[in-house]
Amino acid sequence: MRPLRPTGDVSELPTIVFGSRSLMWWATLGYMVVEGWTLALLVASYLYFRQNYTTWPPPRTPYPSLLIPTINLGVNVVSLVPAYMAQKAAQRLDAGAVKRWLVVLSVLVVAIIVIRWWELWALNTRWDSNAYGSAAWTIVGFHTTLLLLDVADTLGLTLFYLVRPMPAAVLSDASDNSFYWYFTVGIWIPVYLIVYVGPRIF
């Protein structure tokens, strides 16, 4: 029996990786692609309905209110700061800073999901009133499911880090959480413009 010879030495490879070197990063990216295309199809349906009406919203349907949605958009944009800081702290392997910034982010994401309830009613139409109402509610409602997922992920991650010792290997999870949060906020900006501002323009 011939003796076995090593064909490679992987002992020097890093045990903690971030970004595209992480398998979880690619899984998160795949989820973003699927959810992004789904939301894009919903927006395409909304625009398709729009071309079938001479006025949009239809007659006797008020424009969506802008105050609450604009406030929430501002909170969304502000929330990018703690998400970014948590990601950078994770990449520095600074567990204390990761915890602090995740707590700040958790407060903001909870505020965002609470305001989203009022944001839905700011559409000023029922979901079953007409095609416009159904399309608008479906788009905002679908994005709300993405928000709920990320709120649960952020709160769960924060709680996990606060109640247990944080091994360095799990810091990449905080970085991936921020990566997905950028997507959640970034994809909302065009939706806000189309659903809440768009009816006043086209």
Overview of this protein structure:
The chain is mostly helical and 202 residues long. The protein has one domain (36-60, 67-200): Four Helix Bundle (Hemerythrin (Met), subunit A), CATH 1.20.120. The protein is built from five helices and no strands. The protein has helices at 23-51, 67-91, 95-121, 131-163, 171-197. The radius of gyration is 21 Å and the shape is elongated. The chain starts with 22 loop residues before the first helix and ends in a 5-residue tail after the last helix. The relative contact order is 0.17.
Structure summary:
This protein is mainly alpha-helical. The protein has helices spanning 23-51, 67-91, 95-121, 131-163, 171-197. Helix content is 70%, strand content 0%.
Total strands:
0
Distance between the termini: 79 Å
The total number of structural domains is: 1
Number of helices: 5
Over the alpha carbons, how many angstroms does the gyration radius reach?
21 Å
The helical percent reads 55-70%
Unreliable sequence segments = none
Order of helices and strands: HHHHH
Major β-sheet annotation: none
* CATH fold-type name: Four Helix Bundle (Hemerythrin (Met), subunit A)
Structural class: mainly alpha
Under the CATH scheme, which class? Mainly Alpha
CATH superfamily: Cytochrome c oxidase, subunit III, four-helix bundle
